[in-house]
Specification:
The chain is of the alpha+beta class. Helices cover 22% and strands 36% of the residues. Strands 2, 3, 5, 6, 8, 9 and 10 form a seven-stranded mixed sheet that branches. It is globular. 24% of the residues are buried.
C-alpha cells in the first residue's frame, strides 16, 4: 500500500516537473516591436567577433537621424503602455588586432522612458558628433549597431535588431537596390539565422 502510494507521488511529481520545464522552455512572444521612420531596407550587419569567428546577421539600414517608435506586438498589458520596456543601443566594432570585438552603449532608454505615442532618436546630436570624430558613426564590414529591447516584467525576454548606419545618399542607393522586406506574422527582422565567417 505504501509502495503504491509512493509510486503515485513520484509519478505526479514527474508530470509536474515536465509541465514546469515545458513552460520555461517556451516563453511567449516578445511583447513589443519597434518601427523606424525610414522605409525598411535590408542590410547584412556586423554582429561582433566572439571566439574565432566574425558574425554577421540580417538587419536594417538606418541613418544617424533615424527615429523609432514602440508598438505592441501582442494583446495584453503592452497594448496599453510600454512602462516595462528598456532599450539599449550599442556600437559593436572590431578591435585593433582584429581578434575580437568591443561593445559600447551609446544610448539607453530605461523602463518608464518610453511610451507608445512618441518617436525616439537612435543617436543624440552629441553621439553623432563624437562617433564621427572617432570614425565610427557609419557601419562597415567591421562596425555595426545593435538595438536590444528588454522586458522588465520578464528580464529573460530580449529581442535584438541589427542596424547598418549609413549616410542619406548611401541609404537611398541601398533602398533602390534592395528587395522588398516582408515582415509578416511570425517573421521578426533581426532574428534571422546568423552567418559565421571564420578568420582568414
Amino acid at each position: 500500500m505504501l509502495t503504491k502510494g509512493l509510486k503515485s507521488f513520484i509519478f505526479a511529481a514527474a508530470i509536474s516537473a515536465v509541465t514546469c520545464l515545458t513552460a520555461f522552455a517556451a516563453p511567449g512572444p516578445f511583447p513589443y516591436e519597434v518601427e523606424f521612420d525610414v522605409e525598411a531596407c535590408g542590410r547584412i550587419c556586423y554582429a561582433g567577433h566572439p571566439n574565432a569567428t566574425v558574425l554577421y546577421k540580417d538587419g536594417l539600414a538606418v541613418t544617424p537621424e533615424t527615429s523609432f517608435h514602440v508598438v505592441p506586438a501582442v494583446e495584453g498589458p503592452a497594448s496599453v503602455s510600454a512602462d516595462d520596456l528598456s532599450v539599449t543601443i550599442s556600437l559593436v566594432y572590431e578591435n585593433e588586432s582584429l581578434s575580437g570585438s568591443h561593445k559600447e552603449t551609446i544610448r539607453q532608454y530605461a523602463p518608464g522612458d518610453l511610451n507608445l505615442t512618441d518617436d525616439y532618436r537612435l543617436f543624440s546630436d552629441n553621439s553623432v558628433v563624437h562617433l564621427e570624430e572617432r570614425d565610427k558613426l557609419y557601419s562597415n564590414a567591421l562596425t555595426g549597431v545593435e538595438l536590444t529591447m528588454t522586458s522588465k516584467s520578464d528580464s529573460s525576454q530580449k529581442k535584438t535588431i541589427y542596424l547598418y548606419v549609413c549616410s542619406d545618399d548611401d541609404y537611398s542607393q541601398y533602398l533602390m537596390n534592395s528587395p522588398q522586406i516582408e515582415d509578416g506574422p511570425g517573421e521578426e527582422i533581426g532574428d534571422e539565422p546568423e552567418m559565421i565567417f571564420p578568420e582568414g
